[in-house]
Specification:
43% of the residues lie in helices and 16% in strands. By secondary structure, the protein is an alpha/beta fold.
């Protein structure tokens, strides 16, 4: 069974999360050796301070779950997140643009975020459950053209859960141009290992501790 801890981005992006909740998340990341701590932008300075000198990456997510921000505003958020200490950025894609055939706008939005991130890996949340197979293939192509580091099946909020079949398809569509991050519904060690074996490089889950402990979390989405 694939060892998942070093591939998990342990997550708490709940709107009601308190400082104590985030401090607990950061301590768990250090204790278990998770790849990264995924927090909302308001908590990035706290995460950067707490994780300084450790290998745990400070990660944040922008413009989700709705993806309604303008390109200029989201790019500015990416630049600010980097200044505050974020090492990696997950960003919602413009699903409505893709579904409208506005492919250049979809790609150029991601390109602007990649440029604003100034070398930090950017992960594009595709919301695969909202796309046809043809749209999903186009989304991967456009994300790769934009220079993102990862495509991600879902934000964990309405974009569907990760399954081995879906992750395997994303890995096939990516064809080595970008890596794949799995998110949504990852609650057990078995879930995690199956997704890693299907081709995910990283996992996003709020159930990181339960996964490494071999238990099951009641909630394990983003």
């Amino acid at each position: 069974m694939t060892e998942p801890a070093a591939r998990i981005q342990h997550t708490n992006v709940r709107p009601e999360a308190t400082r104590a909740d985030i401090e607990r998340l950061l301590a768990e990341c250090l204790e278990h050796g998770f790849h990264g701590a995924m927090v909302n932008p308001i908590w990035v300075p706290l995460a950067a301070s707490a994780l300084a000198g450790s290998p745990v990456r400070v990660c944040t997510a922008l413009d989700f779950p709705m993806g309604g921000g303008t390109t200029a505003s989201v790019a500015a958020q990416a630049a600010e997140a980097r200044r505050l200490g974020a090492d990696e950025i997950d960003v919602m894609t413009k699903v409505g643009w893709l579904r409208s055939g506005l492919h250049r706008a979809y790609r150029d939005h991601l390109t602007a975020v990649v440029e604003a991130a100034e070398g930090a890996p950017v992960k594009a949340m595709l919301e695969a459950a909202l796309l046809t197979p043809e749209q999903l293939a186009r989304a991967v192509d456009l994300a790769a053209e934009a220079g993102v580091a990862y495509v991600k099946n879902s934000s964990g909020f309405g974009g569907g859960d990760a399954t081995p079949g879906l992750i395997r398809e994303l890995a096939r569509l990516s064809a080595g141009r970008v890596a794949v991050k799995a998110s949504g519904g990852i609650r057990t060690r078995e879930d995690a290992s199956a997704l890693l074996e299907a081709g995910a490089e990283l996992l996003g889950s709020s159930a990181g501790v339960a996964i490494v402990a071999g238990g099951r979390a009641a909630h394990g989405g983003y």
